[in-house]
Amino acid sequence: MTAQTYGRLSTLGLALAQDGYGVILDAKYDQDALRREVIVAAQAAGIPIQILHCIAPEQVLRSRLDQRASTGQDIADATADLLETQQQNWDPFGDLASLVIPIQTVGDWKAQLMDLL
Predict the structure, then answer these.
(1) Which letter does DSSP use for residue 107 in this model?
(2) Helix (H, G, I), strand (E, B) or coil at 38
(3) Mean pLDDT, each 10-residue run in order, the chain (117 residues)
(4) Does one domain contain both 42 and 57?
(5) At what angle do helices 32-44 and 3-18 cross, to 10 degrees?
(6) Assessment of whether the complete model's pTM goes beyond 0.90
(7) Which domain holds residue 33?
């Protein structure tokens, strides 16, 4: 995703949240600056925000990425070949850690989400 795409996602998400809708911005947000942009905007608008950090073992991630790529119907640019680079370039949450809710996606992630609601 490009900065333009993240910006558009943020703009739409914030507009929907201000209209009273629950919003999930489904993107990797691996760079601290991308996260902070959304968080600062949400907080300035008085919108509560949490980070759902989806977690799975590397072999599961590779398998999922290979499966998505094999369909030829996924618009995401992530591939198993890029996984190691993406993990190395991941910015830690640092002082944003209090906003993070980890979700283990190998288990019953739907139940985990329901427990949060």
Answers:
(1) S
(2) helix
(3) 87 96 92 94 95 91 83 67 84 96 87 80
(4) no
(5) 20
(6) no
(7) 1-49
